[in-house]
Amino acid sequence: MRILAIETSCDDTGAAILLNGRKILSNVVSSQVSVHQKYGGVVPELASRKHIEMIVPIVTEALERAGLTLEEIDGIAVTQGPGLVGSLLVGLSFAKSLAFATDIPFVGVNHIEAHLSAIFLEEKPPRFPFIGLVVSGGHTSLFRVDGFGKFKRIGQTRDDAAGEAFDKVAKLLGLGYPGGPIIDQLSTKGNPKAIRFPRPILRKNFFDFSFSGLKTAVVNFVKSHPESPGDLPEEMIRNIVSSFQEAVVDVLVKKTFLAAQHEGLKRVVISGGVAANRLLRKRMEEEASEQQIRVHIPSPGFCTDNAAMVGVVGYEYLKRGIRSPLSLNAFSNLPL
Ligand code: KG4
Ligand code: ZN
What we know:
Strand content: 15-25%
Oligomer: single chain
Shape: globular
Order of helices and strands: EEEHHEHEHEEEHHHHEHEHH
Radius of gyration: 20 Å
Helix content: 40-55%
Bound molecules: 5'-O-[(R)-(carboxyoxy)(hydroxy)phosphoryl]adenosine, zinc ion
């Protein structure tokens, strides 16, 4: 079964073609970073416009790279939400039009389920059940995952997502956008123990997160210096971001493994843009080997937004005969 998958939930236009939900025949992502960079964050209206511009060339390129024509596609999968509604609508309307014109079955996919399923693109995917951490620009949630479509959410952020905190701290310090990869890189040259930032809500058996207090602690630390944030000495900036990253990673690792213990599970999957973070990946691996738990993390390109992960989920549903109606709508807060 060949699935054409489309992802436009935020600021990346993605199209991929998957064979039997696992083998990638093509996976194309067009990033809009250059569009949003000068605003220090995603501007929703500009994101939708760029998706409109890119959707046809990106889908065409995905077909070309796979060496296929539309007639050889058996199913279409598209992100239905959560995300920016204007962005989602571009991909969804395009997918629905294509399905209508060609009579190819189509299905809407939840973006969070897609992130959790990106691990099935890797050579040695985990068996169910596992603890899944989705940690991105819009989400920080822990799930017990018993199968495709079988999720129990056991924790989530009460305010900012972890990626959002990375982006806001980078913006405060004038480092650029998106903040996550910049802080990841800068932190390698900083001292993670230089500043003891708070580790929010690390109580046992409590799996919600909160990152806004940590962000405020960074703001207050910066304000306590006479220089404006952009004029702070370089070494201090490196120490701030490194100490901030250390605090975020500490919380994510501890809560994830506490959740695994609580659910009695020996497998953990990490996904979403922040799962590309090198320190987070390293700490997760270290903790896993200490606790004799297996941790599975997709390669960085499958952690950030991409259409291949949408294809994994789409395949699972389409092969069971599940299809979406052409009346399907996009929802910015689609629950999982
Ligand atoms: O999953 P994603 O591409 O989009 C959403 O669904 O949100 O995640 C984007 C987020 C951004 O906040 C970005 O700063 C963060 O993931 N991110 C990182 C890294 N790469 C991307 N955060 C920390 N370290 C990274 N290496
Ligand atoms: Zn995402």
